[in-house]
Amino acid sequence: MKFSNVLICGVLSAAFLFSIPADAQTQNIKAKKSKAVTTAKKNKRSEMKKVDIHSQRESIARAKAAQEAAAARAAELARQQAEQAERDKPIVEAEALMKASKPAEAYALLEPFEFDRSGEVRFDYLLGIAALDSGKADKATLAFERVLALEPNFAGARLDMARAYYQLGDLPRAKTEFESVLDQNPPEAAKMTIQKYLDAIRAYEDAKHTRISAYVEGVMGHDSNVNNSTAQSQIPIPAFGNLVFTLSPTNLQSSDNYAGLAGGAEVSHSYNQNWGVYAGADARQRSNFTMGAFDAFSVDGRAGITYASEFDMVRVGLSAGQFTLGNDRNRVSTGLMADWRHSFSPVNQINLFTQYGRNRFVDPALQVNDFDQSVIGAGWMHVMNDGKAVAFVSYFLGNENDVALAGRADGNKRFDGIRMGGQAVLRESWDAFASIGVQWGKYDKTNAAFLVQRSDRQEDMSVGINWRPAQSWTVRPQLMWSRNHSNIIIYGYDRTDISVTVRRDFR
Question: How far apart (Å, rounded) are the C-alpha atoms in residues 282 and 317?
Answer without folding.
Answer: 15
